[in-house]
Automatic annotation (TrEMBL):
Pfam families to which the protein is assigned, alphabetical: DAGK_cat
Natural source organism: Molorchus minor
PROSITE patterns documented for this protein: DAGK
Domain DAGKc: 168-297
Name used for this protein in its record: DAGKc domain-containing protein
Amino acid sequence: MEIKVDNLNQTLLEETFYVLSKKNCVFRVRLTRNGLCLVKESEKNIKEQIIPIRDIVGCRCLRSKKQPKGCTCQSIPHSSSLEVVEDTSGELDDSDISAYLYVYAYIFQISKSSHKRRERTIITLRFRSFDRYEDNHKEAQKWRMYIKKLIKGDNVANILPITSNNQKEDKRLLILCNPKSGAGKGKQIFQQKVVPILQEAEISYDLHMTKHANFARGILEWHCGVINGIFERWDWKEAIKSVPIGVIPGGSGNGLARSIAHHCSEPYLPSPTLPSALAAVRNNFAPMDLVRVETTPQIMFSFLSVGWGLLSDIDIESERLRMLGGQRFTVWSVARLIGLRSYGGKLWYLPTDVPLTIPKEHFSYQSNPGSNLDLPAEVHLETQTGRERVDSWYSANSRKSMYFSATGSSYQSTTDSLIGDSSHGRDRPVVHGPASQIPCLTAPLPTSWKCISGRFVMVHASYQSHLGEDCLFAPEARLNDGKIWLLIVRAGATRSQLLHFLLGLSTGAHASTQTEAPIELIPVNAFRIEPDMTESGYMTVDGEHVQYGCIQAEIFPELGRVMVP
């Protein structure tokens, strides 16, 4: 253990840098496997700060920009007046032979009020030990290569010489942007919050703007990404274990993004996009449970929740208030409490102490990454109707879009050939995936299942901790705990009990004070809902409206992978 600590603290590179904005002040900078150690020496004292590698997203070598005509140049410019550009720019200041290394970090901080947050920090290192820019640039590039290797977790024992070939990043992101999510600020969020971090990390990407429901599924049957798009691929077994999925919050709920941050103890507010953007550039991932959902017309794979009753009513009916953002849920919750509804039917569930047909280890590839994933394959035919072609004017390059491009990145409207249409000329695309471990929807259930019959205000199942940014639905849930958390609210619940329940969702208090008989939160492996079809209502999967009727779901532990900070 001591040898490991010594190796982490071993100095890889060391240099002394002068502070541009202050006289008689220098920094001694040491690079170790742990991070950058900054030792500030002034006339009065010495201060030391460590920037952990895990907080650094990237670094870039830049050169000073040519000063405007008529400007009195300084031999050592102040940091406030220094402007830098790429060394390929035509605006280079040839009089400055220095090479500048910009290191971008998001440092974990705890405020005086004990609130956690990340603070963006830029460390500027000015290399000017040599008489030629080329030599200074070579030294700066050496530091850059070491830092980039450490960020990726690669071996730094042998650093290759700097060439145009090995400077290129081998990672490329596929980004799907829904411009109509939430309050309709998807494009703005991507441009202002996400692109700067991608540029700091020098991550190339392909951007596709979604146009209509299920649009992303068509793209990802080819590119491999969102969950149900992956399960429409013939090679889904390889795709599901080789491509992690990330989500950057831009909608009204943002339950998965909030759950990921909660799982990793990562600060989420006041910058909800930051944890997801950091996860995308750092290439960290964790296994995540997926749930196979079966309805009468289709089979899908879900990452968040299945709902029937009150919360689904609020979710779907508040769509007319989408311009309010997340506040639409609060407004409609009040309306639904006033006009309280209940629904008749049967609820079946399989408790977690009763195993599913196939043991977890038979399909959990994360427990042994070197083994072959051997899931029983299933083919299900799902009818697709009414899919429109995507018009090219909707490209991010249109005049209505305001994007600036990172090097090597591309923007596509996905109008060409097969990309915009997941059916590829078929009315019934093939959906693959692991075979069910429970009886089909029309078959009777074993006696090991428990049944509740009567009227319900709601039945809502979640496999993540949060259903929304301020909705801590299942405080004990984790990304890969192998459980479905089933909340049952029977028709006997009063409006007062329901009000306390809804208020408790923001803190998770509803789960710790379940003393009321009509409200129950239990972990299960699978469940089935059989509603009374003489009534109408809403059912949702991951917040999306599905056909009202019989529905069942079962857990597949650690089947997916998700990007984490």
